[in-house]
Amino acid sequence: MFMEDRFDWEKFPEDQVRRFGNLKPSSIIIGIFILIIAIIILSSSFYTVNTDEAGVIKTFGAFSRITGPGIHTKWPWPIQTVEKVSVEKVNRIEIGFRTVGKDSAGNIIYSDIPEEKTMVTKDENIVEVEFIVQYIVRDPSAYLFNVDNPVETIRKTSWSAMRTVIASNTVDDVLTIGKEAIQNQTKDLIQSVLDRYNCGIRVVAVQLQDVDPPAQVKSAFDEVQKAKEKMDQLVNEGKRYYNQVVLEAQGEAYKIVKEAEAYKIQKINLAKGEVSRFEEVYRQYVKEKNIAKKQIYLDRMRSILAGINKYIVDPSVNLNIFLQQEKTEVIK
Question: Which fold, 91-213?
């Protein structure tokens, strides 16, 4: 009994083939179809959002919700679909040129877009402007649903903003000293327009790549720029020389003024000293007129006879004295 009920593994494949062979072809097709539908439903019900992305869920094509990084579930296709948008990646749009690839040496190849890069300045000069716009997506739902083609919208807005800013600057500003200001003005103008469109975009930077006059007149522009640079150099040299001479003159004038002030103080002090001395002599004169007169006489003679040879003659004693500086000689 036990031996008869034992399962025969050797006959199992044949039994299964015989059993499925008895199925109708339509039943097999329906089973396969149901299996495929089940696989599609299961595979479309789960999705993964990376750490730098946001998942935008659409229900029958309309916005439903936004999901963050991780594994999520949703209603299967075609009820719901998910579109992943990078919210941290800095995207780049090229205007006036396009990157088309690399050559055999690995150098990047660019292609010019003349209709985009030709612009007119405030003083009616033509310049060719190539620039890039960097942006990130800050609102995925607005980015996907508020405009039909976000990238093309950003490109056209950026091109229009740059033309507006270039038209408000002279060719000298565009080619030389005004590039940073032009970049900042264009960035602000692009952002204000995109905000009005509610595109969900934040402009990170606008960078000018090449700003040149047209090739037909580039040599003439280069000569003009060289002449301006030479003029600026001469002007700066003149200013340096002027400042040097002025500073030296100011220093000399300051020195003369200080010397004059010192001389004035010296003379004033000498005059005060003379006045004090005179007042002292006068006080002595008032007290003793004869003594004062004799003292004045002696002081005056001392100043007159200082430094000269002198003879002293005394006839009463027949004596002559010769006085010479640092030497005395008696002559009889």
Answer: Tetrahydropterin Synthase; Chain A (3.30.479)
Which amino acid makes up residue 32?
A: I
Decide: 128 and 212 in contact? Cβ < 8 Å.
yes
For every residue of 280-301, DSSP letters joined together read HHHHHHHH-HHHHHHHHHHHHH
pTM for the whole structure: 0.58
Question: Largest Cα–Cα distance of the chain, in whole Å?
Answer: 194
Query: Which pair of structure tokens corresponds to residue 195?
Result: 């905000």
Determine the 3-state secondary structure of 201 from DSSP. Answer: strand
Give the angle 219-221-223 at the CA atoms, nearest 5°.
70
Each residue's pLDDT tens digit, 38-77? 677 667 788 889 988 999 999 888 888 899 898 888 888 7
- For residue 152, pLDDT over 70 is answered with yes
| Domains of the chain by residue range | 2-85, 91-213, 216-287, 288-331
Indicate the burial class of 133 (C-beta count within 10 angstroms; 0-12, 13-18, 19 or more): buried
Query: Token pair 């004033």 is at which residue?
Result: 268
- Predicted pLDDT at 132: 96
Which residue type sits at 141?
S
* CA 282 to the chain's CA centroid: 81
- Which structure tokens are listed for 51? 């750490």
Which residue in the block uniquely carries the two structure tokens 């006839």?
315
Q: What is the pLDDT of residues 241-287, one digit of tens each?
A: 888 888 888 888 888 998 899 998 998 988 888 888 878 777 777 77
DSSP state string for 11-36: THHHHHHHHHHTS-HHHHHHHHHHHH
Tell me phi and psi for residue 315, to 5 degrees: -60, -25
According to DSSP, the residues that pair with 134 across neighbouring strands are 92, 205
Mean pLDDT value across the chain: 82
- Give the integer Cα–Cα distance in Å for 103 and 99: 12
